[in-house]
Amino acid sequence: MRPTPAICRLVNRDACGARTTLPLDMDDSPQRAPLLPCHANPATTPPAGALPTHLAAMLDRVADGVMSLDREWRFAYVNQTMARWLKRSRADLDGRGIWECCPDLIGSAYYRTFHEAAASGASCTCTAYYAPLACWFEARAFPDANGLTVLFRDVSRERQQSAQLEYHADHDYLTGLPNRRRCTQVLARAVAQVAEQAAQAQVTVLPADTEAQAPQVPQAAGVVVLFVDLDRFKEVNDAFGHAVGDTLLCKVAERFRALLAPSAFVARVGGDEFVFILRDTRPGQAERFAGAILAGVSQPFQVDGHTLLLGASVGIAQWPEAGDTADTLLNHADAAMYAAKAAGRFQFRVFHLDLAQGLRQRLQLRADLHAAMADDQLVLHFQPQWSLPDGRLAGAEALLRWQHPTRGLLSPAAFLDVLLESPLEPAVGLWVMRAVCRQIAAWRRAGLTVPRISLNLSARQLVMPGLAGMLADLAREHEVPCGLLDVEVTEDTLMTDLDSAAAALGELGRCGISASLDDFGSGYSSLAYLTRLPVATLKIDKSFVAVLGTTPEALAVIRGVIALARSLGMRTLAEGVETHVQQRLLAEEGCDAAQGYLLGRPMPATDFAAIIGKSAVARGD
C-alpha cells in the first residue's frame, strides 16, 4: 500500500543512536495546490487521516520532531517529540490551526520558511531561536499535494559549541580577555572608523570674496593605543611558581576591566602584556588613563596567602601622530613602552620620533642576523617528548637558538619577530632543515636509536616551492629516513593560505614526512580546515595545559581535543607540562605524549644524545 502522501523518506537516528528509515513521499508536481496564504482555520475541511500504525510507531521513536500540516495550516499529524516540545497532547492539536495553537510563530523565521516552501513547491530550511523553549531548532519544510511536512531538529548544543569555539579563538583562556587576534581586529576597525570621520570633518572653504566665514567642523576624536607590560612579573613566577603567576594575571585582568569605559577595550596580547584601545579621546585623556593603569597595578595583590607587588610600564601611541594603521600604532606603542622601562619602569611614555631608536635597535638585530649566518652563531636545542602510556621517548622538538656575541644565548622570543620580517628567513629555515638532518645522521653514526625529530616551519617556509623535495633531498644526502622527520605548523600559519598549506603538507606526507599542528586550540580550531589537512599530530596548546587541575573547563576542552583527534585518526601531544598533576590528568584522559619543563627543558644536542642512550637502554634496544 502506498504510504500517506504527506510523508517523505528520511533517515534519522533515535535517542539510542539507531538508524530509522522513514518512508516519506514528496510530491513536487506543478499541479500541487498551494496552502492557504493566511492564518484562517476553516472548520469545513477535515484533517488528514491517521498514519499506519507501524509508521506512526517509527516516527515516535525518532529524536527529531515531525509534524504534518494540511493545506489550511491545520495539524494533520505530530509525533511524540513534537507534541512534547509544543507542550500539547496530540489529541489537542489534531485538526487545529498551527497559528491558533502557536501564535508566537507568526512573523518568525519558521513562519517565513513554511510559507516559502508552500509558495515555491520546493523544500526550505531555516535555523532559528525559539524563545518559548529557549532552544535553537533547524526546521526543514517539505511541501506536497496534501500540505506540508516539517522536520524539527534541536541544534542548541551545536550552536553552543560553535559559539564556544568562536569565543576561544578570540579570547585568552586564562584571563577571559580578548586575545591579540581580537585586539588587532578591533584596532583596525577603530582606525578605519576614525579615518572616515576625519574625512567627513573637512573644513568647508568659502570663496575669498565671501564675507561670511565657513563654520568650523570639530576635529574627529582620536584613537589611542596603550601598551602595558607588567614590571617584576617574572620575579613572581620564579619565586612562587606559575600557578601563583596565573592567578595574579587573572587579578590584574579584573582590575583592568574595572577601568573600562563603554568606548574602551582591553586585551591580553602576551604573557604579561596587555593593550588598551581608547576611542573618542580628547587631549590629555590618554595620559590620565595611563596614570589610572599605574595606580591600579600598584595596589598590593593577595594571592594564596602572599602579598604581591607589581608595577607596569605603559607606552602610548595616538592616531594619527604615531601612525595611521593598526600595526603601526601597536608597534609604536610597544616602542614607547620599552622607553618607559628603560627610563626606570612604573611610568608611561608617549611615542615620538626619538623613540624610534627602539625600532632602530630591532633593525640592528636584523642586521646582526647576517653575521649569525656567516659566523655560525645559530645552534639547535632539543626538547624531549615522552609517551604518556609507557614513558618511552617519543621524539623531540628542534628549537632554534642564537649565540649572540654580545647579548648571549637568545631564544626565539628575542629575535623571531625580527627574523620573520627579514629576507633571511628562507635561508635560516634551510639552515634549520639541514642542521636537523646533519644532527640525526651524527646520532645514528654513534649507534643511537633516534626518535622522530620535529622542526618548526613558518607560513612563508611552508608554501615555499619545492619544500617537500628539498627536505627529502637533504634527508637522502645525510642518509636519514624521512620517517624520522616531522614538521610543525601553527594554525595561524595554515590560515595564511589554507589551500597551499594543505598541498604542501600533502607533498611532505607523500615523501614520508609527517606533520604536527602546533598550539591547537589557540587559534581557529575549526573542523572545516582540520579535515582537509594531512596532519598526524595535534599539539594541545600550553595555555590549556597551564590551568589543568585548577580550571574544570580546561579538562573539558582537552578531553574534547583528544576525542576529536582520535576520531580523525590523529595522535595528541600536550605542550607546556610543568606539574605532575598535569601529567597525570593528561595520561588519564588518553593523551598520547607530552613535553614541558617537567619532562625536560630544551637542551644541546650532546645532552639529548645522553637522553636517547638512556631511553634506548630502558627499552632494551
Write the layout of secondary structure elements.
Elements: E1 10-13, E2 19-22, H1 53-61, E3 65-70, E4 75-78, H2 80-86, H3 90-93, H4 98-101, H5 109-120, E5 124-130, E6 135-144, E7 147-154, H6 156-170, H7 180-200, E8 222-231, H8 233-240, H9 242-258, E9 264-268, E10 273-281, H10 285-298, E11 301-303, E12 306-308, E13 311-318, H11 326-342, E14 348-350, H12 356-374, E15 378-387, E16 393-404, E17 408-410, H13 412-420, H14 425-445, E18 452-456, H15 459-462, H16 467-477, E19 485-490, H17 491-496, H18 498-510, E20 514-520, H19 527-530, E21 537-540, H20 542-546, H21 552-567, E22 571-574, H22 580-588, E23 593-594, E24 603-604, H23 605-619
Parallel strand pairs: 13-14, 16-18, 18-19, 19-20, 20-21, 21-22, 22-23
Antiparallel strand pairs: 1-2, 3-4, 3-7, 5-6, 6-7, 8-10, 8-13, 9-10, 11-12, 15-16, 15-23, 15-24, 16-17
Helix pairs in contact: 8-9, 11-12, 16-18
Notable traits:
5-stranded antiparallel beta sheet; 23 helices; disordered C terminus; 42% helix; disordered N terminus; 8-stranded mixed β-barrel; alpha/beta; globular; 621 residues
Work out the strand percent.
15-25%
Low-confidence stretches: 1-34, 36-49, 203-219, 617-621
The helix/strand class is alpha/beta
Q: Helicity level, as a percent range?
A: 40-55%
Placed side by side, the strands forming the largest sheet appear as: 15-16-18-19-20-21-22-23
**Kindly, what is the distance between the CA atoms of the first and last residues, rounded to a whole number of angstroms?**
71 Å
Number of helices: 23
Q: Report the count of strand segments.
A: 24
